[in-house]
Amino acid sequence: MVKRKVGMIISDKPQKTVVVKITNYVKHPLYKKYVKQITRVYAHDEKNEYKAGEKVMIEATRPLSKKKRWRVIRRMK
User: Where in the chain are the domains?
Assistant: First the structure.
């Protein structure tokens, strides 16, 4: 089973790499309120085709560099 997530690209400045922001809402154990958790991950973009502001689907892959552990699959609408 492949781990896949949906997120928003916040930076496309590095070559063949995009920075993706993944937003997750988690219920606080004591206050029972939903709290927003944001995770930034580096994803591989071979053709530099994705730009900042786009919503994309990424999937986990083998380590591609020191920080890259994800690969961009496709654009979401």
Answer: 4-75
pTM of the model: 0.89
Give the tokens for residue 38: 């944001």
The pLDDT value recorded for residue 1 is: 85
Domain 4-75 grouped into CATH 2.40.50.140:
yes
Average pLDDT of the residues of the chain: 97
> Are residues 26 and 15 in contact, defined by beta-carbon separation less than 8 angstroms?
no
**4/39 Cα distance (integer angstroms):** 14
